[in-house]
Amino acid sequence: MYESDCKSCAPESAPAPAAHAQGAHAHAHHAHGAAGASLNKLTTSATLHCLTGCAIGDFIGLAIGIGFGLGPWATMALAVFCGFVSGFAFSLVPLLRSGFSFAQAWRAIWLGETISIAIMELAMNLTDYHVGGVQVASMLHARFWLGYGAAVVAGFAAAWPVNRWMLTRAIKKPCH
Q1: pTM exceeds 0.85 for this model
Q2: CA–CA separation, 62 vs 14, rounded Å?
Q3: CB-side exposure of 135: number of CA atoms within 13 Å?
Q4: Domain-by-domain residue ranges, the chain?
Q5: pLDDT in single tens digits along all 176 residues of the chain
Q6: Whole-number Å distance between alpha carbons of 129 and 125
Q7: HEC secondary structure over the chain
Q8: How far is CA 106 from the centre of its chain?
Q9: Is the separation of the CB atoms in 127 and 121 below 8 Å?
Q10: Most exposed residue of 22, 53, 54, 104, measured as fewest CB within 10 angstroms of its CB?
């Protein structure tokens, strides 16, 4: 199931990924058959990858919003925007470096990443808002860091089952 997904991610002019040429044992990162543990590991990896991009963008947006004294809603909107930009960049750049055109890379990731980032950003910003981190006057306030930390955990927890579901239905591809 996932082997064909990697082939569908590969640009037409690029050779097949090296893992596919090395035999079936090289597919340990794929979830074949009843390998639920492999699927869980793949889901965790994909969710952490997405979380890294979102968390960096979110932090930048929060830092700018709080630094300029924007209100909580404007700060969260900026954090969401930055989270999407950073999240997409984390998925696009490796594909572009491996020989994909921008259009090919975008087609490979847009739907899965959009859903994953949206769920993650919703959970992160709701959590940060309710903890109060986005409402402080300075990033030096302990509540900022408590809110950001809780938001990162909530983002992972909310996106993990969604990413697992998308991976099992080939909506999100494990190629990056």
Answers
A1: no
A2: 39
A3: 7
A4: 40-168
A5: 333 344 445 554 544 444 333 333 334 444 444 456 799 999 999 999 999 999 999 999 999 999 999 999 999 999 999 999 999 999 999 999 999 999 999 999 999 999 999 999 999 999 999 999 999 999 999 999 999 999 999 999 999 999 999 999 988 877 65
A6: 6
A7: CHHHHHHHHCCCCCCCCHHHHCCHHHHCCCCCCCCHHHHHHHHHHHHHHHHHHHHHHHHHHHHHHHHCCCCHHHHHHHHHHHHHHHHHHHHHHHHHHCCCCHHHHHHHHHHHHHHHHHHHHHHHHHHHHHHCHHHCCCCCCHHHHHHHHHHHHHHHHHHHHHHHHHHHCCCCCCCC
A8: 14
A9: no
A10: 22
- At 72, the amino acid letter reads P
Structure-block tokens of residue 147:
């809110």
